[in-house]
Write a structure and sequence with these properties.
single chain; two-stranded antiparallel ribbon; 58% helix
Length: 151
């Protein structure tokens, strides 16, 4: 009796395991993956926050001067491209000849203004008295980096 039960159980398991293999690709299939497209405003916010993080990491001495300059250059270039694209879409760009002419100094000033706004936002926060990490909230009780209780 137990041999018959074991044989039936083995056949059921083999069927359940083997059925998808023999069924082939005629069954369910996954829909085609398509890339998600973020808006330019989202891209700009990501780039600007990344620039702020790079600046913060450099001042906390987590980045070397060489890495800082390289990353800042790359992200600033990406920010300029996004700002050019935004100007192009809004139709506010100054056209000259064939292409769109954008004042690079004006874009740099805009980037610097947004970075300083991000830095001002962070300056109001206290630092941990043990490790010096900026706290994320105004009345944070514990440091998120070292776990020390704040006074």
């Amino acid at each position: 009796m137990s041999a018959l039960f074991s044989t039936m159980l083995a056949l059921i398991v083999l069927f359940l395991v083997g059925y998808p293999l023999f069924k082939g690709s005629h069954g369910r299939s996954f829909p085609e993956a398509r890339p998600l497209r973020r808006s330019l405003a989202d891209d700009k916010e990501v780039i600007m926050s990344s620039l702020g993080e790079i600046e913060f990491d450099y001042h906390m001495r987590k980045l070397s001067e060489e890495d800082y300059q390289s990353l800042k250059h790359d992200y600033s270039h990406a920010a300029v491209e996004i700002l050019k694209e935004q100007e192009e879409q809004s139709g506010k760009g100054k056209t000259k000849g064939k292409g769109l002419r954008v004042n690079a100094e004006e874009i740099e000033r805009e980037i610097e203004a947004e970075l300083s706004a991000l830095n001002k936002k962070d300056k109001g926060l206290a630092k941990c008295h043990r490790c010096g990490t900026k706290l994320k909230e105004e009345k944070q009780q514990y440091c998120h980096s070292c776990g020390e209780r704040q006074l």
